[in-house]
Amino acid sequence: MNAICRVAARRAAALGLGLAAGIATAAVAGEAVAEEASAFIAHRAVYDLTLDRMAAKSTVQGARGRIVYEFSGNSCDGWAMSLRQVVQIDGEDGQSTVSDTLATSWEDVGGGTFRFANQNLVDRNVREVSEGRAERSADGNVVVQISKPAEGRVEIGSGVVFPTQHMRRLIETARKGETILSVKVFDGTDAGRKVYDTMGVVGRPVAPGGNGALEAAVRLPELKETRRWPVTVSYFEAGSDQQTPIYTLSFELFENGISRDLTLDYGDFRLKGTMATLDILPPTPCR
Fold this sequence. Notes:
mainly beta; globular; Cell envelope integrity EipB family protein
């Protein structure tokens, strides 16, 4: 049971995807990056989580929880992300386990710097923590300076994107009418040392006003004329030949970076995330 909670926690941090993307080595001028990033909108969203499916031999008998996600900043300096995910998982033995994950990060507009801090508690006991800073050099190589759980330095190579870069790349892919985005993602989880291979699949665009049966939270003027796309992102162990993802996240992605209709698939069980509230936040003034 605790192992399941730890997997759920690690991938919860990746929601900064998530929900959270151009790459610095893609020869994109800084001006163009800033122009695309300006399409993002600062917001705070709350999602209620319910059990959507269990595998046939799953030991999970019930699950429920909540995600509070905040995305803020501006197109001049960078974007900050804060995510809190609390999930109660009920086992077949009648026992319940609560996983409480907090992930925060800041990423500059050009994708050169990524600061992160992640913590997971299981039944109020700290199980995992990671904190550090990733820097991209002029040649595209990314080096991570880790302060927690232990000080260290690791080179994760080039061709890696951070969460907000990943979101930008997904939106770029959707705008071009393309359907597949395969990219390596670093989000600071797993002791700040892990890179994930991801496969993103983008579906057909939903025109503004399409699928009228939207939850009340997203019926806002800021979204009335905004396109969105169904997106599925699967996460794999980097460099592994394993065909089964360790985690899959599906959602509808608005062109301004807001996500709704979440599905979090951990293999053993799947959670559905329904947006309960959405607040549009003022952008942070440029320095």
